[in-house]
Amino acid sequence: TTLCSLVLDNAISNAFRHATSPDSPVNLAVTTAPIGNGELRLVFVLTNQVSPAKAPLTREFLARVWAGTHCRPGPAASATSDGIGLRQAFLAADQHDMALDLVQHGTEVRFTARVIVSVADYPAPPK
User: Fold this and answer.
1) C-alpha to C-alpha distances, 63 to 21, 69, 117, nearest whole angstrom
2) 28 and 53 in contact (C-beta within 8 Å)?
3) For the chain, which end, N or C, has fewer CB atoms within 10 Å of the first or last residue's CB respectively?
4) Shortest CA distance to 110 belongs to which of 18, 5, 3?
C-alpha cells in the first residue's frame, strides 16, 4: 500500500498542479482482476486536462526525468514542478514491479499504473 500511496499521491498532485484550471476534473479509475494463486492485478488510470499553453509531455521529457537529467532552469521555472516527485514515483515503481505509463494526447494526460498484489486472508476473529 505504501508504493500505491507514493505513486498515486504524486500522480494526483501533478494532475491538479498542471490542470487547465483549479476546478478542472481529475478522474481516477481503479480496476481489479483476479489472476490466480491469491493474486490480483490492480490498474489505476488517472486522467486530466492540461493547459494547451503548456509544453506537452513527450517521451524525451519522460526519459530525462527517468535519467535524473531533467531540470527546468531559470527563475521562471516552477519550484513545485521540477520532476523530482515523478522520478521518485518511477524509481519506486520499478523497484516493486509496478508498470507506469504517462502519455498526453492533445490536452488529455493519462497516467496508468499496473501492479500485481497478493490478497491476504482476513485474520480469524479472537475467541
Assistant:
1) 27, 9, 27
2) no
3) C
4) 18
